[in-house]
Amino acid sequence: MSKKSKKAQGAQSAAGGTPATVALTAAGVPFTVHAYTHDPAAASYGEEAAEALGVAPEQVFKTLLADVDGALTVAVVPVSGSLDLKALAAAVGGKRAAMADPAAAERSTGYVRGGISPLGQRKRLRTVVDASAEGRPTICVSAGRRGLEVELAPADLVTLTGAVIAPIGRD
Question: What values do phi and psi take at 93, rounded to 5?
Fold first, then answer.
């Protein structure tokens, strides 16, 4: 990973952390924080993160919010692909899914678009992690603000968010 990385192994202080890193620290989960300079002109926040960190886009996961039958649902998928809304709905026993209104997503999670983390959200939402995460030792997800990623084991992400794993991503 990048030279800009900062080992956090549970040592991130609550004062300087985001709700995501504070939640990881409180849970005693090993993680690494990776910071980079965010370019506001970047076309894709996730692809920007992968490039800045020098990792494959398949290792960096984006956090998307969808409305599944009237309930906000978190989807965590690789930045190299897109979200299959029908598969997401099926994964949570729903019938219909559509992308959530960005303002509703920000209000519910407490994060800004492009910096929404699946961890440390204001309100715990149903969460689905794409099955492609299972075969990886670690993945990167937003740490709660643009230009900040957290690397952790997929199993830890699933445990902390109460997520289900399902094939919800498309290449």
Answer: 75, 20
Query: Residue 108 CA to chain centroid, in angstroms?
Result: 15
Strand 169-170 and strand 82-83: the pairing is antiparallel
Q: CA 80, CA 60: separation in Å to the nearest integer? A: 8
The pTM assigned to this predicted structure is 0.88
Report whether 67 contacts 85 (CB < 8 A). Answer: no
DSSP 8-state secondary structure symbol assigned to residue 100: P
Count of CA atoms in the C-beta half-sphere (13 A) of 77: 20
Question: Would you give per-residue pLDDT tens digits along the chain (171 residues)?
Answer: 433 334 433 333 334 589 999 999 999 999 999 999 888 888 888 888 988 899 999 999 999 999 999 999 999 999 999 999 999 999 999 999 999 999 999 999 999 988 999 999 998 999 999 999 998 999 999 999 989 999 999 999 999 999 999 999 998
Spatial contact of 31 and 9, defined as CB atoms under 8 Å apart: yes
